[in-house]
Write a structure and sequence with these properties.
heterodimer; A: mainly alpha; 2 strands; B: mainly alpha; 13 helices; transmembrane helix (chain B); Glycerophosphoryl diester phosphodiesterase membrane domain-containing protein (chain B); membrane (chain B)
Chain lengths: ~200, ~375
């Protein structure tokens, strides 16, 4: 029988953080792109586009993409970079249906009681959280986590840098916008306000 | 009365504390109500109010909106009066008013500049997201209900089941339960809606106001009784669906007929559960209130000495988290207890149930 190395809580946390920061960095990039293409007149339009992007990509597309990745390659991007694989207890790959159930239905169970279900990883021999137990899956460690940790550090740094860029761009846009509107208001309303 | 209420309550209490895994699904059922995206909040109301203010005040601003001809004329006027206008800026009241108007105009200008298809795209994305979340929410709630019913049934028969077993036993019935829930909700609401419609129509036809109003009122009362029966039928139907492995239609008919036949048992258990829920809420308030008051007094007292404040706030946060965990657990336990009472009632009404105590006594006797 094959000896499996089950993934620890820490490794899974790194993979989870990677997934989160990949989305954050993508979001920040889109935000900056929209900010840079904004002028005084279309900035609300760009905010609407950004919210639409969040709803469509982060809210809907990622749900199906993650399920597809789990069933096709054995894990989300974060898990694959960290060298972790999600598989059935018998070692087979999950189907898309199983993956959706694990990621979006069963995980709600682990989140109740302030995420108590995730701490079950410390307790069970196969290092299964509640959602793993429910969906009869295990997370197996295929290689060293170091690439995952390095990627996470890089992504966090990139996110911080992008956040600074975004704040600076937003501040510049706000200044130019206020200046332009101030001129317009003075120009349009002063003659009438005098009388 | 066919059911033994005392036995049901005793057994339910035992089941609740016998298998703690049931609490996990119980907690999910408390959270099920949070999958509601239709509740109006103060935030949205304030937003609307603010928007209304903006749109009104923009039209109060003189010279807005202006045509191109006006603009050319204004350039001339502006040249002449620029000196005066600069003087006016020095007056505090005037500056404040301009600043406020600037913000209002800027928002309105930016909103009016947004292409219509951007709004359409946002609306579609929001609807799609909402649809997905509602579907997921409905599925989670139904799945948790099915798993809980199966878990309670197994525990009542002294079979120890874990999360995996409960989930696997409940999952095949989740979709049927969604159908049953939607059907029973519609069935309960439609007669009430019709009654209201008749009452509204009665006002439109003066000659028939009294007659139609009376019919509408009687229908409304009957609809409420019918709604009660439908909900009772749905509660028992759910159990029939999960335990009997029936289709939603068959299960609803079975539940409805059982509720109709033993309406007294069902109503009494419903009232008892309501009373226990009320007691639970009162107890929660009694526990939370002194803690909250203590925390506020503690923070106020400690604010005199800054280092102490940090400690008190940290303790306060921990106590707050503790309270939430405690009440989630208590809510989950109550949820399991309530579901257990219904499962045991259904089993007593449809088949005689033997208490575990009696079972043990019989085993000892043998």
């Amino acid at each position: 029988m094959e000896n499996k190395m089950y993934s620890s809580f820490f490794n899974r946390l790194v993979a989870f953080m990677l997934d989160i920061f990949i989305l954050y960095v993508l979001g920040a990039l889109v935000f900056i792109l929209l900010l840079n293409s904004s002028n005084n007149e279309n900035y609300i339009g760009n905010i609407i586009l950004f919210i639409t992007y969040i709803l469509l990509v982060h809210g809907i597309l990622m749900l199906f993409l993650n399920a597809y990745l789990v069933s096709k390659f054995g894990g989300t991007v974060g898990k694959l970079i960290s060298g972790l694989n999600i598989e059935n207890e018998d070692g087979s790959r999950l189907t898309v249906k199983q993956a959706i159930f694990r990621e979006y239905i069963a995980k709600t169970v682990s989140f109740v009681f302030f995420g108590l279900g995730f701490f079950w990883i410390f307790k069970t021999p196969k290092k299964q959280a509640w959602h793993d137990m429910i969906s009869s899956t295990v997370v197996v460690k295929k290689r060293n986590i170091i690439l995952g940790i390095l990627s996470l550090i890089l992504l966090i740094a990139l996110f911080i840098y992008l956040s600074i860029v975004a704040v600076t761009s937003a501040s510049d846009l706000s200044k130019s916008f206020n200046g332009s509107v101030k001129n317009k208001v003075n120009y349009n309303s002063n003659p009438f306000n005098i009388y | 009365m066919k059911s033994d209420l005392g036995l049901i309550l005793r057994e339910s209490y035992k089941i609740t504390f016998k298998n703690k895994w049931l609490w996990v699904f119980g907690a999910l059922l408390i959270g099920g109500s949070s999958f509601n995206f239709f509740s109006s909040s103060d935030f949205s109301k304030n937003d609307k109010k603010e928007f209304k203010n903006i749109s009104n005040s923009v039209y109060d601003i003189p010279g807005f909106p202006i045509s191109k001809e006006d603009e050319a004329g204004l350039k001339e006027v502006d040249k002449l009066l620029s000196q005066y206008s600069n003087d006016f800026k020095e007056i505090p009241y005037y500056s404040g008013s301009t600043k406020s108007n600037q913000n209002e105009i800027s928002t309105l200008l930016a909103i009016t500049n947004v292409p219509k298809y951007y709004w359409a795209l946002l609306g579609l994305a929001f609807l799609a997201f909402l649809f997905l979340m509602v579907i997921l929410g409905l599925y989670v709630k139904s799945w948790a209900t099915c798993a809980l019913i199966k878990g309670i049934d197994s525990t009542s028969q002294n079979i120890n089941v874990g999360l995996k077993e409960m989930s696997n036993l409940g999952r095949p019935h989740a979709v049927e339960l969604i159908k049953l829930n939607i059907f029973s909700t519609l069935l309960a609401i439609i007669p009430i809606g019709l009654s209201f419609l008749i009452m509204v129509i009665s006002f439109a036809i003066p000659s028939l106001t009294v007659l139609l109003g009376l019919i509408g009122f009687v229908m409304l009362l009957a609809s409420f009784v019918f709604m009660l029966l439908v909900f009772a039928g749905a509660v028992l139907g759910k159990i029939s669906l999960v335990l009997g492995g029936k289709k939603w239609k068959e299960a609803f008919v079975d539940g409805f007929n059982t509720a109709k036949k033993y309406i007294l048992d069902v109503v009494i258990l419903g009232i008892v559960n309501c009373c226990i829920g009320l007691l639970f809420t009162c107890l929660s308030i009694l526990v939370i209130l002194p803690l909250v008051i203590g925390m506020i007094v503690g923070i106020m007292g400690a604010s005199i000495v800054p280092p102490l404040l940090l400690i008190v706030v940290s303790i306060g946060i921990l106590v707050f988290i503790g309270i939430i965990i405690l009440f989630t657990a208590a809510g989950a336990a109550f949820s399991v207890f309530k579901q257990s009472t219904w499962v045991l009632l259904y089993k007593q009404l449809t088949q005689p149930i033997v208490s575990n105590d009696i079972k043990e006594e019989n085993t000892d006797g043998k």
